[in-house]
Design goal:
Blueprint: H1 6-16, H2 30-33, E1 34-42, E2 48-56, E3 63-70, H3 90-95, E4 98-103, H4 131-145, E5 149-158, H5 160-167, E6 176-182, E7 194-195, E8 198-199, H6 207-211, H7 233-240, H8 255-262, H9 268-271, E9 285-291, H10 299-311, E10 316-321, E11 334-337, E12 340-344, H11 346-363, E13 376-380, E14 385-389, E15 397-404, E16 410-411, E17 418-423, H12 450-453, E18 459-462, E19 470-484, E20 490-498, E21 519-528, E22 547-560, E23 565-571, E24 600-605, E25 609-615
């Protein structure tokens, strides 16, 4: 394998790591205001973790410690080398905090061996370790060895660092008072690399980042990316064929690729790597943050919040904005996802009025629950404005059912009959008109779906033009009744806002599009049909037998405005976002052969139901 150019590697690191603030803000000289120290903190088992500490030069007062633990490097290395921006946002940086970054175990300059989504060990004995103990030991050292700290610690992180933030809540050190998991992974079988058992093929190249282990510190990249010879992602994966053909790019030394192949089901390997099930009796204040159009981590934020609400009596709030992965940490003036514009300075206002307020209150002020932040601060992506709720989902929301009826109608009553379509693995439905060679696509989360609506292998159902606003607030439940001539199939459901003919373009509208009749994807999800009854024990379909396939789409907060239409699309391929289902049942799709991939006819019955949380 060949290494990609350094510029490409750093683009990837900026993409997957916690995003830094944009350079468009006022210049601030970190080196003029902070001292930098690099230390190796010894964990209980003797392993040393590389830790970078930025301390304010003004020593006239004490400061809280804000820490972010990352697998993506605490660069730049060297005590005379400074980041241009530090901390969760510019306000917390300029106001003065002790900012700490740490390379987690087995990554970059830290010792030890990395374990992707290292399992939590309750009731650890002796020198047993996990990410909770590494966080505890780090905090213990910091509060006892860093000058001018006030004894209070906050933890933050986005994406994988968000997972480590969530981990800090388990067996939390008494000094940890405020934690903000942002776009946190909740369970690797439902976030990132899998969605309801379907493998996200779009993540395949990222396997290089997580799969190659090392056992000595390194300040340079030790992993490499496969050279593919094309920038056409759709064609590359279509030509590659079965997943087993990708083995030539990742050999046995890529541990994560082997784990993916060996554990196609939700077995003990994946179960013990989930963090949600361990969130019990949490004490620190928590602010969950996420993007309503985050293509990577939607399961985590909603499920972490919901679980803490059920199991704990701490301060716990949810903030979800009109963002893709990590947008809230940037400061771009116009906030848009793809073609859809949402407003100005949304991220900057969040940083100043929400994130800074949260950390200052619990780390510098009283720390009681009397803080002017709502239980749920949610952006309505249809009305394009923030709303505050005392609970999420809102208690006043009611369930409303829509049925996939005849003549492409989305109806309020079920009817008899069914529609069918041919699903051909050789001509799968693209997830977007604009498929590029990217690690994880972002804009597709709001992409125009007209191209899909016009394909014969995509079923379309929609309401009449709405005569009044329809606000969805909470989860979407798909209860499909289906049949297939094969023994295996995937099922994809998309919730779409159809714009009126007089919708106006914005500067973000792509040149080849018009917002007139734009089909904005609001939410979408896949269900690998073999897991319809159990993620642990997959089973085939009986050919031509009517079968229930039920699954949840992550929460939405979107108003379909008067004059718009609500549309549902149903399909069975979504390529190359997810891998191709052979549509012939095999025990392990990672080991399927060419001959297993067969064209099949799928049927969706008109008593299939989409249950929405409607706010009246």
């Amino acid at each position: 394998m060949k290494l990609f150019p350094k510029t490409f590697l750093w683009l990837f690191l900026l993409f997957v790591a916690a995003p830094v603030f944009a350079q468009e803000q006022d210049e601030y000289d970190v080196a003029a205001n902070y001292n930098k120290q690099e230390v190796e903190i010894t964990m209980r088992d003797g392993i040393k973790l590389h830790t970078t500490i930025y301390s304010p030069k003004d020593t006239s007062r004490e400061y809280p410690i804000l820490i972010s633990r990352t697998p993506y490097s605490s660069r730049p290395y060297g005590e005379d080398q400074f980041r241009s921006k530090i901390g969760p946002n510019e306000y917390l940086m300029k106001q003065g905090n002790i900012i700490v970054y740490q390379d987690v175990r087995g990554r970059w300059m830290s010792e030890g061996v990395y374990d992707n989504m290292r399992p939590y060990i309750p009731q650890k004995k002796g020198k047993e370790i996990d990410e909770a103990s590494d966080t505890y030991d780090t905090v213990e050292w910091l509060v006892n060895n860093v000058d001018n700290n006030n004894g209070k610690v906050g933890v933050w992180g986005i994406s994988y660092p968000g997972f480590y933030s969530t981990y800090s809540l388990l067996d939390a050190h008494p000094a940890v008072k405020a934690v903000s998991p942002q776009a946190s992974i909740g369970d690797f079988f439902f976030d990132d690399f899998h969605h309801n058992g379907a493998y996200l093929l779009s993540y395949w190249r990222a396997t290089a980042v997580f799969g190659y282990e090392k056992n000595t510190p390194s300040d340079t990249t030790w992993y490499s990316f496969p050279e593919l010879g094309t920038k056409d992602q759709y064609q590359f994966f279509l030509d590659a064929g079965p997943l087993s053909n990708l083995d030539k790019y990742y050999k046995e030394d890529n541990v994560f690729w082997q784990q993916l192949k060996e554990h196609p089901n939700y077995d003990e390997f994946w179960q013990k790597r989930g963090i949600v099930q361990h969130l019990d009796d949490i004490e620190p204040a928590v602010m969950i943050v996420g993007g309503l159009f985050d293509a990577e981590d939607l399961y985590g934020p909603f499920n972490i919040y919901e679980t803490i609400e059920k199991t704990s009596d701490n301060f716990n709030i949810l903030v979800m904005g009109p963002w893709s992965h990590g947008d809230w940490a940037r400061t771009k003036e116009r906030q848009a996802i793809g073609n859809v514009y949402f407003g100005d300075n949304i991220s900057r206002n969040y940083q100043k009025e929400v994130e800074t307020l949260f950390f200052n209150h619990f780390l510098k002020e009283s720390g009681d629950k009397n803080i002017p932040l709502p239980e749920a601060y949610m952006y309505d992506t249809g009305l394009k404005k923030w709303k505050e709720y005392s609970a999420w989902p809102p208690k006043e929301a009611k369930k409303k059912s829509f049925y996939l009826g005849e003549d492409q109608e989305l109806m309020t009553t079920a009817s008899e009959g069914a529609e069918e379509f041919i699903s051909d693995p050789k001509k799968p439905v693209p997830y977007s008109e604009d498929i590029k060679m990217v690690f994880t696509p972002r804009k597709y989360m709001t992409d125009d779906q007209r191209f899909a609506a016009r394909r014969p292998d995509v079923l379309v159902y929609e309401t009449e033009v709405l005569e009044e606003d329809l606000t969805l607030a909470g989860e979407v439940l798909a209860k499909l009744n289906v049949a297939t001539t094969g023994t295996a199939a995937d099922w994809i459901v998309k919730v779409i806002d159809v714009y009126p003919p007089d919708a106006e373009d914005t500067p973000e509208t792509q040149d080849h599009l018009k917002m007139s009749n734009y089909h904005m994807m609001v939410r979408s999800e896949v269900m690998r049909g073999r897991f319809r009854n159990s993620f642990e024990k997959p089973e085939p379909f009986e050919p031509n037998k009517k079968t229930a396939v039920n699954f949840q789409l992550q929460d939405v907060h979107h108003t379909f405005k008067k004059g718009h239409k609500l549309q549902i699309q149903v399909q069975s391929t979504w390529f190359p976002l997810i891998d191709l289902n052979p549509q012939t049942y095999v025990d392990n799709i990672f080991k399927a052969n060419e001959e297993d991939f067969q064209k099949q006819t799928h049927k969706v019955f008109h008593d299939s139901e989409i249950i929405l949380n409607v706010l009246e």
